[in-house]
Design brief:
This protein is of the alpha+beta class and about 750 residues long. It contains 19 helices and 30 strands.
Length: about 750
């Protein structure tokens, strides 16, 4: 092929790939004179797109990329067929660049002399003609695609955009010439995108059929921060091996000081639990400080058996709503907000069970290789470790005169005399804690007591908790919760850090349903290579903590976690593009003069919005003093037969959250007056206020009627609100940009 085309030997790889492609379209006596393509897909192969290797190809230059006086096409050389897209691989001998395009006309009668001239032209350039791989990204408005090539010694070059993509199958994708006549005047798109790098194959849903991941390569899906080893062997082989070794030594010293285990012989009737080293690079508490190297020895608790080496495992954690309420209280009363961290918190828990563990990898004591660790204290990774630590901390706090709150058992409160606020509050989330009080001296006294009982790390003023950055300006009375760093990590993880942003989290043209889910094993296998669950999970954490504007979109895409399709993946990518434009947005809490400490709720519902089940969507959001503290967007558990019923069911669900928030805030010591729940359905308000039971509502489940009792008891005030002013509208349906932006501002989801 190379000799006949008069191409230099540097293109041998392109010739091999093309030959392999042609073999799949060639019949064989061993297969009954059927082609591999026909055996794979059950239909005859189409040969109309095949062209002579090395022939002249004239590539259309889009009108947007040329002037009126420039040629409409440029002469290239055909090198083969591009994997994953409908297009040809073409070499530009003048620019020494590889191009992938479908807008091509061919001259298959090129003479050898012409080939030699082209070769000479390339050689004179002194550049390497060896092309590299091609990656791409599909937009959400369509399947317009710009391809880029990274060849050794050459810069990235944008190439022709694709008008459409048609998947044929593995191992190759047939180019467009099989479907349409060749033309040099075909319409092209002016929209450009960037080729992703890390998740290049996964980010482009048009290339699913062309991805082939061996089972042993499944580890590619594990994403670690740059510089974080995934195993002990990798840590020892890394450039930072001395830092990681020091981190492991510190961890072992901490375990030794805590008398976590003793070395004994393994009893014959006992099983042994293995262990593993886990490594993490953490940001320094001080801005601009060096990275902190942390190594954690964890037990492989998944090998434990219930009733043998563990029983109960439940351990509560503070709710995110509680943390946001606390932030609003800090702003209103100008309170001290400090943070502490428990070092090796799980080691303080005592074990009631007999558990044996192998000695840590790389730190087996010489002469005692046959011994195992009998655990005396709980260890990270054990199923009961969180529960034992929580019991230990709870006993300590109760012994210090604190009261555990009823409505959030991870919040501890103690009355303080001669204090404007009147309380000191501690919120615990595993080993992270926030301490709130009016007087700094009260906070310092509690810190001393905690440090005397546990090994603590005093982080001073709270700056970061659970991945949320805390920005506070005491002079202006403002506090912001932001996840900008995390958002940028998410975008980088899925190669969307340079994508084109959009203005809303989900566009109206996405009609998501199970009809777009894979229906056969081949399609499911292809979608299994897409990191759909990881992307949704990453966005879910953002929505849960600080981004209520993502609630509706997350509710929709999370319905297809078990069997996502290409359209669902496109919707997730759209959300990532929205995140790109709003990565620095966060929740703002302030104490403006026009704000009160009122608890205000908003509730709304669509009607039969789910295309699969025809169930409606409930959306509600609650604000305290104007700051957003709780939100939800979820499918209703029943099928509503009218808009009134859908709104009534939504109001009942919001009532449960309203009652809990009201009691929690009151328990924290804030008098906020009567709360208000706003609903834009007049008929639902009448149904809640009047004890009617006619044929139109008699079928409604009795559990939804408890809203009537709450209204009758005047637990809150249920009032009518104009639908245009109801921010819960953004939690139930896709709305225009103007309305969405207005509701987002109402909830104080603002750019930092």
């Amino acid at each position: 092929m190379l000799s006949q085309s008069c191409l230099p030997h540097e293109f041998w790889a392109e010739a091999v790939n093309t030959a392999a492609y042609l073999v799949n379209f060639s019949p064989s006596s061993a297969t009954g004179f059927k082609t591999p393509f026909e055996m794979r897909y059950g239909r005859p192969a189409d040969y109309s797109h095949l062209r002579v290797f090395g022939c002249d190809a004239y590539v259309l230059t889009p009108s947007q990329l040329r002037s009126k006086l420039e040629a409409k096409s440029k002469k290239c050389i055909l090198l083969g067929y591009q994997r994953g897209v409908k297009g040809y691989r073409l070499w530009d001998p003048v620019a020494c660049k590889l191009i992938v395009s479908r807008d091509v006309s061919f001259n298959e009668s090129r003479s050898s002399k012409e080939g030699e001239n082209s070769q000479s032209s390339r050689t004179d350039k002194g550049k390497s003609p060896i092309p590299d791989t091609v990656e791409g990204e599909i937009s959400h408005e369509g399947v317009h695609d710009r391809r880029e090539v990274d060849a050794p010694g050459m810069e990235l070059v944008p190439v022709m955009e694709q008008e459409e993509q048609v998947i044929v199958g593995v191992p190759q994708i047939q180019p467009a010439a099989a479907d349409q006549p060749e033309s040099s005047t075909r319409r092209t798109s002016s929209r450009s995108t960037r080729a992703p790098t890390r998740y290049g194959q996964w980010a482009d849903s048009s290339k699913l059929d062309d991805i082939d991941i061996a089972p042993e390569d499944d580890q590619m899906a594990l994403i670690l921060e740059e510089g974080e080893p995934s195993s002990y062997q990798e840590a020892c082989a890394s450039e930072q091996k001395h830092e990681w070794n020091a981190a492991m030594q510190r961890e072992l010293q901490s375990l030794s000081d805590n008398k976590t285990w003793e070395l004994v012989k393994l009893p014959s009737d006992q099983q042994v639990v293995d262990s593993k080293w886990v490594y993490k690079l953490k940001d320094s508490p001080s801005d601009g400080g060096d990275k902190i190297y942390k190594a954690r020895l964890v037990a492989k608790g998944f090998t434990q058996e219930k009733g043998v080496d563990y029983n109960e495992v439940f351990s509560p954690v503070a709710k995110y709503s509680t943390i946001r309420i606390l932030c609003q209280l800090v702003v209103f009363f100008d309170l001290v907000l400090d943070q502490m961290d428990v070092v090796t918190a799980f080691l303080y828990g005592t074990l009631d069970e007999l558990i044996f563990m192998r000695q840590p990898l790389g730190f087996v004591k010489k002469g005692q290789e046959g011994l195992v660790c009998r655990l005396l204290k709980s260890l990270y990774g054990l199923k009961q470790a969180p529960r034992q630590w929580n019991k230990r901390f709870d006993d300590f706090m109760l012994g210090q005169g604190f009261t555990r709150m009823v409505y959030d058992p991870c919040v501890y409160r103690k009355s303080v005399k001669n204090d404007v606020f009147g309380f000191i509050i501690l919120v615990l989330y595993v080993d992270d804690m926030l301490i709130v009080a009016k007087d700094q001296s009260e906070v310092d006294r509690l810190k001393v007591k905690l440090s005397s009982e546990f090994r603590m790390k005093d982080l001073g003023k709270a700056r970061r908790i659970l991945g949320m950055e805390i920005f506070r300006n005491s002079s202006t009375g403002q506090l912001c919760l932001n996840q900008g760093k995390y958002a940028r990590k998410v975008l980088a993880r899925f190669s969307m850090e340079d994508c084109k942003p959009v203005s809303i989290p989900l566009a109206s043209h996405f009609k998501l349903s199970s009809a777009f889910s894979p229906t056969d094993a081949v399609e499911k296998g292809l979608m299994a290579k897409i990191p759909y669950e990881k992307a949704v999970g990453s966005l879910m954490y953002l929505m849960t903590c600080t981004r209520p504007d993502l609630a509706l979109a997350m509710g929709k895409v999370s319905r297809f976690m078990s069997n996502p399709g290409k359209v669902h993946w496109e919707a997730v990518k759209w959300m990532l593009r929205y995140l790109k434009g709003t990565e620095d947005y966060g929740l703002l809490f302030d104490r403006r003069s026009d704000r009160t400490t009122a608890l205000v709720g908003y509730v709304d519902s669509d009607y039969g919005g789910c295309l699969d089940t025809r169930r409606s969507t409930t959306g509600y959001v609650f604000t305290l003093g104007g700051g957003c503290i709780s939100w939800k967007s979820t499918l209703q558990k029943c099928i509503s037969q009218s808009t009134t019923e859908a709104e009534y069911v939504a109001a009942a669900e919001a009532t449960k959250e309203a009652i809990w928030l009201d009691r929690l805030i009151t328990e924290m010591g804030l008098e906020h007056g009567k709360m208000t729940l706003n609903c834009d359905s007049q008929s639902a308000l009448h149904l809640a206020a009047n004890q009617v039971m006619d044929s139109r509502v008699k079928h409604i489940d009795i559990r939804y009627h408890f809203i009537r009792q709450a209204v009758s008891d005047k637990t809150f005030e249920l009032v009518k609100i104009d639908g245009k002013l109801n921010p819960a509208d953004a939690f139930t349906k896709v709305i225009p940009l103007e309305s969405f932006s207005r509701h987002r501002a109402t909830l104080q989801v603002l750019q930092l």
